Amino acid sequence: MTRDVHRGAHFDVSNGGFAGQLEELAGPTGRMQRSDELKGRIVAESWEPGARVADVARRHDAARWQIYKWRQLAKRGDLPLPAAARRMPDFATVVVEEPPAPEPAAPSTAPPVIELVVGDVVIRAPEGAAAEHLARAIRAARLAAQ
Fold first, then answer.
1. Does residue 135 lie in a domain region?
2. Distance (Å, whole) CA 139 – CA 126
């Protein structure tokens, strides 16, 4: 182990100068450049039934967040998808059915009825009842409700 003379702490590294495995990063910035076509294929693969984004990301040396971002771009139409994957995945199938036509009402054989409610009393009279008869019934209902 070596000692950092500036901080007075021990570091768990060898003295042989070997830093471990070095990996060359692609491109001048160290970022992997992917074409939109490849991104579209990766997104389509992530939308396959049973696919897990983490597994797809691992297969393509990508981060999960990248695939989620590409999915958003594809949903907005900003990322082209392969022809076979242009249909977005379904979360639920929507079925729209026309409501059944209402059955025509059967013609009523009973004569039309006038219904009056006075307090707790309901007065039903045929449509052609005389006004004087209805007035007497209403007065009687009012007196009964008091």
1. yes
2. 18
User: Range of 135's domain?
Assistant: 113-145
Cβ atoms within 10 Å, residue 43: 25
DSSP 8-state code for residue 121 = E
Burial class (CB within 10 angstroms; exposed 0-12, middle 13-18, buried 19+) of 11 = exposed
Question: Containing H/E element for 44?
Answer: helix 36-46
- pLDDT tens column, 27-64: 566 677 888 889 999 999 998 888 999 999 999 999 99
Indicate the residue among 42, 57, 89 that finishes a domain.
89
Q: Is 73 helix (H, G, I), strand (E, B) or coil?
A: helix
- Amino acid making up residue 60: H
Tokens read off for 72: 């958003």
